[in-house]
């Protein structure tokens, strides 16, 4: 299966907030991909590299943690 890159706009602002979300993102991807935040970007970008297209799951999980999260289309 081919890997895809999903890009999300978020409201995550700093490393301590990233650490709060990290275990949930790790569980969601279960070793089938990786993720990172670009907090320098004005959209506080979350990039997810994964085989499965679980956009709604990722956005929902971040939102449940109390942050805005919306997929950015190409």
Summarize the structure in words:
This protein is of the alpha+beta class and 74 residues long. The protein is built from two helices and four strands, in the order E-H-E-E-H-E. It has helices at 15-29, 55-64; strands at residues 4-10, 33-38, 45-50, 69-71. A four-stranded antiparallel β-sheet has the order 2-3-1-4, with helices on one face. Strand 2 (33-38) and strand 3 (45-50) form a beta hairpin. Helix 1 (15-29) packs across helix 2 (55-64). The longest helix is centred in the first third of the chain and has 15 residues, at 15-29. 18% of the residues are buried.
Report the strand count. Answer: 4
Ends distance: 21 Å
Beta-strand percentage?
25-35%
Largest sheet: 4 strands, antiparallel
Q: Give the % helix.
A: 25-40%
Shape, per Cα inertia axes: globular
Structural class: alpha+beta
Give me the Rg, rounded. 11 Å
Mean pLDDT: 92
**Number of distinct helices:** 2
**SSE sequence, one letter per element:** EHEEHE
Summarize the topology.
Layout (H helix, E strand, L loop, with lengths): L3 E7 L4 H15 L3 E6 L6 E6 L4 H10 L4 E3 L3
Antiparallel strand pairs: 1-3, 1-4, 2-3
Helix pairs in contact: 1-2
